[in-house]
Amino acid sequence: MSPMIMENDVEVGESLPPATEHAVSVSLPTWRANVGYEEGEEWVISKMKTGYPRFFIHKIIQAFAAAIVEKHGKEGESAMLFPTHATASRCQEFFLRQAPDLNASQVRILDFLPAAEIARSEELEIISPKVSAVLFPQDRFSIAKMFWQHSGDGVSSRRAEYCYQLFKEDILVEASTLNQSARVCKGPKRYQKKTSIDLNAPVDLKNGNGEVQDPAQFVEERFGRNLSLTKAKNAKLAIRRRIAGSLTADVELTEAMTLDHDAARQRPIAGFSEDDVYLYPTGMSSIFNAHRNLLRAKGSHRAIVYGFPYIDTLKITEKFGPGSQFYGFGSSEELDDLEQRLQGGERFVALFTEFPGNPLLRSPDLERIRKLADQYDFCVVVDETIGNFINVNVLQYADVVVSSLTKVFSGDSNVMGGGLVLNTKAKSYPLLKRTWATDYEDNHWAEDSIFLERNSRDFVSRIDRIGTNAEAICDVLSAHPRVKQVNYPKTSPTRPFYEKCRNPNGGYGGLLSATFYTKQDAIAFFDNLDTVKGPSLGTNFTLSSPYVILAHYGELDWCREWGVEEDLIRFSVGLEETSKLVDTFKKALDCIPSAEGQ
């Protein structure tokens, strides 16, 4: 696991963790910095070394796209990069729907593959490096960016880094020129070094001062560029077994492949195995592809989004397909309305919900939803990212379970990933299994899989500790008179619904949020809170953000209509020592001006 970060002075725009090339968060340490980012103010934007990957296109990806345009594009074009022709085609289709004045010659796809002789290299056969570029008029970049953000299907920064080097060495070539290339190579030079490490081999973890470093940090900093990519196949299998619950031991990859399944932890669904687990490049990709495949399998009906969701889940159902019915409060009254619609003959493809929701941490009544789904033949898709399967069993009520592996499953904030699980007991299972069999592509890049597997080995123990810390912070915030409301599954009015799904030894997760009586109170608390601040969640270090400002800045009035206050602060609690973390929050609370002084 990564070392703890407890500095409030990480500079604006620095990666989180600092100096991490493929970090998935970025420092926005003050309220003003968050607003400045949303407003596009130069003093913030100019300092951004990175950002959350679906919102901020990594600079390596930007450079690779620019190089493709320079070599193969036309004047006034830009490019967006995807892992396969199929994913690029979906971007092209979306683009042409959004811009009907354009045609396929103006929004075109170029595929880049290893030259035939080079593809016989053992390493390149295993990792299958390829990229498909969508080239389009530069002044329509916002459309391409919209697809990139909502679908989550763009290339990862590690894939781009590897393939960009191949491209520069004329090893990765545009498909129409394949027969013209004849160089033989084993991949980019950084992967050819004899020092390429075995992740299972013992290594000297001492730094120059003779101090023992954290193993994950050591690998990332010293050997992250020289990983043996041939381990990707086993890494992917280990990840899928962890998601299935059958692999919970914190062991090296070689040993993990020899262990019997953990029957006590495996998801309690008859016939279920890792064969029903699918990997995606991001959590949003798992949601996007769930929606897309359900439309293919069940017909073109509207979706239901129940409960106030993460922003892109709603956008996916609104912009891809026939639209959605939104129930933003996640209330029993809204389920009454849904039932009346169903009784009146309306039909839906699926209901999408989070368990619990982000950022209000409310839990939906999955039992009632399941009964309606069975009666009226729609699927239930549950995002378990916040709850996670160690704490809760939502698969019993779902047809499909999705999650972002970028978050607490990884913890180290240095790799993206998504998971999707099919329920073998669901009536829809045979249909969905056939649908995924004909459509699924494993686009999780090999090197990303290696990092994700290593990061997730101590997943179970981290979940327990994070939950303990989060409950302590919930107590501190709840006891303070200047805190208006604390949102946490344990204290939520919807706790009975959470308890129906909570595992015997499960906790309440590591995410909570709070609101204050005035904006000034919220700002005073946030600016004096000595944690790192930025987007994302599930990190091993505590991460705070004015979530609604970051996620919904252009629609604050709309959020207010659904009971989501713009001054809400979200906390993703980490692995720090509980007493120190409590003191950190208490000190920030002490900085709120007294009511008399305002």
TrEMBL record:
GO terms for molecular function: cystathionine gamma-synthase activity; pyridoxal phosphate binding. It is an enzyme of class 2 (transferase). GO terms for biological process: methionine biosynthetic process; transsulfuration. Pfam families: Cys_Met_Meta_PP. InterPro entries: Cys/Met-Metab_PyrdxlP-dep_enz (IPR000277), PyrdxlP-dep_Trfase (IPR015424), PyrdxlP-dep_Trfase_major (IPR015421), PyrdxlP-dep_Trfase_small (IPR015422), Trans-sulfuration_enzymes (IPR051750). Belongs to the trans-sulfuration enzymes family. MET7 subfamily. Catalyzes the formation of L-cystathionine from O-succinyl-L-homoserine (OSHS) and L-cysteine, via a gamma-replacement reaction. In the absence of thiol, catalyzes gamma-elimination to form 2-oxobutanoate, succinate and ammonia. This is cystathionine gamma-synthase. It comes from Pyrenophora teres f. teres (strain 0-1).
